[in-house]
Amino acid sequence: MQNTCPDTVPRRLAETLSGIDGTWITAAGPAKAPRHKGAYLLLLRLAVAAQIDLRGTAHALPPGWYVYAGSARGGGGIGARTARHLRKQKTIRWHIDQLTTRAVEMSALAVPDGKECALVAHLLKTGHFAMPVRGFGSSDCRQCTAHLLAAVDPDPDLLYSPRA
Fold first, then answer.
1. Tally of structural domains, the chain
2. Number of other CB atoms surrounding residue 131 within 10 Å
3. pLDDT value of position 102
4. Cα 150 to chain center, whole Å?
5. Is residue 6 domain-resident?
6. Domain range for residue 95?
7. 63 in a domain, yes or no?
8. Which listed site, 70, 79, 148, 154, has its alpha carbon 20 to 30 Å from 130?
9. Any idea which of 81-85, 115-119, 137-141 has the lowest mean pLDDT?
10. Any idea of the CA torsion for 81, 86, 91, 93, to the nearest 10 degrees?
11. Is it the case that residue 60 has pLDDT exceeding 70?
């Protein structure tokens, strides 16, 4: 758990997320993640294209950075939910599990008392994200088209280069 964005997150993505008040969680420290209820952003990078299944329909996701907005309202809170997402070995239970088991890099931003739909709306307003698969992660949401966002940027060097 840390208060600054992990170094593995590219500059443009880090800058875009810097305005969100939260605590960073990495696979190295998920046990220290907050037990608060709220929302989180799961950042993940696919090194190769991934085929995913959404309600019986196959979708191809190209390599790149993705952000998934989720909520954790149960007893273990954000800490328990993000710890599960950051584990590679798990039973595929949610849409996002199809990506977390294939991601080469992952970290999470815990937002206590946050709302996942508000986070999605905020990120879409920046112009740095698009919804790659309609309905992904938002089966029970009446507000959002999807809770998975793909990072897009006209200058790929800013999106895919590590920060200095």
1. 1
2. 17
3. 92
4. 9
5. no
6. 11-160
7. yes
8. 79
9. 137-141
10. 50
11. yes
Amino acid at 152: V
Retrieve residue 29's tokens: 């420290």
Q: In sequence order, what DSSP letters do the residues of the chain get, joined into one string?
A: -BSS--TTS-HHHHHHHTTS--EEEETTSGGGS----EEEEEEEEESS-EEEEETTEEEEE-SEEEEEEEEE-STTHHHHHHHHHH-SS----STTHHHHTT-SEEEEEEEET--HHHHHHHHHHTTSEE-SSTTTT-TT-SS-S-SEEEE--S-HHHHHSPP-
Torsion of CA 6, 4, 113, 118, to 10 degrees: -70
**Which residue type, as a one-letter code, is found at position 113?**
D
Q: What is the pLDDT of residues 17-55, one digit of tens each?
A: 888 999 888 877 655 666 789 999 999 999 999 998 888
Average pLDDT estimate for 106-135: 91
Q: Confirm whether 5 is domain-assigned.
A: no
Name the residue among 133, 132, 136, 129 with its Cα closest to residue 153. 129
Contact of 41 with 68, CB cutoff 8 Å: yes
Tell me what pLDDT residue 32 has.
61
List residues bridging with 71 in a β-sheet: 39
